[in-house]
Amino acid sequence: MTDEPNLLGEYLRARRELVTPEQVGIPVLGTRRVPGLRREEVAMLAGISAEYYLRLEQGRDRRPSAQVLTSIARVLQLDDDSYLLSLAEDRPKRARRRARRETVPPSTARLVAALPFPAFVEGRCLDVLAANALAAALSPRLTVGGNRLRDVFLDPAEQALFPDWERAAASLVAGFRQSVGSDIDDPRFIELVGELSLASPHFRQLWARHDVAERLGATLSFNHPQVGELRLDREKLAVSGTDGIMLVVYHPEPGTGSAEKLALLASATISVDVPLA
Questions:
Q1: What is the average pLDDT value for the chain, to the nearest integer?
Q2: Does residue 59 contact residue 9 with C-beta atoms inside 8 Å?
Q3: 50-58 vs 39-46: helix axis angle to the nearest 10?
Q4: E-strand spans in the chain?
Q5: What is the predicted pLDDT for the residue at 29?
Q6: Contact 78/19 with Cβ under 8 angstroms?
Q7: Would the pTM count as exceeding 0.85?
């Protein structure tokens, strides 16, 4: 038995517990002692033996075929099986790593400073690596040295910005897991997950679900303490030549009330004489 973390087994178990028998057409008779599906039910629906599936969850077989994993992904109702497939890839064991420094390319830093919208750069662990003044005006936590996960889970002022805070938090966790992938020996990852697991029960609950999602654009609503409700489109763009660094930009639909409010917020970052209504 290897002493490597059983990422595949942990993921399969977590996702299995989130699928109800009714979702896969299994009638429920009597009292069930486990949440979600039983191991033998997943195996039956995936067309593999219960013993083999047990070996996968226990980590006694860590290199199943793509065909087997695709069948299991279908049973577990995964929208995208790429993360599951990545957990079974053969990787050489690596020595304990040092924390690596994430560096924002100078051209990207200049672009962030020049953009007329709130913009910042986030690293693989959602650390804020660069930000412009309008980003800080949108949220004072959007400054270099901040971390989006830590702020959203531990800072009440940041939580108050989001009308649907729980959905925003769940989206961040899923994007964080996808960003890090199986690279869990990253010291920054270990530090951050450990800190949040101790400090936030809600983070622990979401982390245990093993949800995974791409770090994509979306439309978000904010309850800004000075200008009120804002509805902004968020773009997340990969920075070329880096390992997982993203440029994040918030921008309003032209001609809307949100565009007017953001312009007011922008003017206030330039002149203290402009009052916020």
A1: 88
A2: yes
A3: 120
A4: 119-122, 128-131, 218-224, 228-238, 246-251
A5: 77
A6: no
A7: no
